[in-house]
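Handout, section B. The chain below has 110 residues.
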Amino acid sequence: DLDTGAQLRALMPHDDAVYAAAWGPAGRRFATGGRDGRVFVYELGSPSMLADLALNEPVLALRFVDADTVEASGWSGRGTRWGLVDGAAQPVPPATSTANVAGALQVRVP
């Protein structure tokens, strides 16, 4: 709470550094990805985590494709998409290559 400084919510800790974070398009979901290869998805206002996903390699880039789909890529350049349906995570085959997720999210400085 910005007025009181009270903590409103604690996020599930990663086992190592967090390398990526993303807000859902409606601003109601938030996801984190880390060196531990895990992606955690939270629904604002919910007391529990929405999804605990495994990329099985450090997560370097993370984004919401839409309100119900999260995409992440790791060190190998391969990506994975997960559908968030009724609070459950299910693998979703990508419509396009996810190998370029990290490249698409990089900030280039001249």
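Note. The radius of gyration is 14 Å. Compare this with the example in section A.
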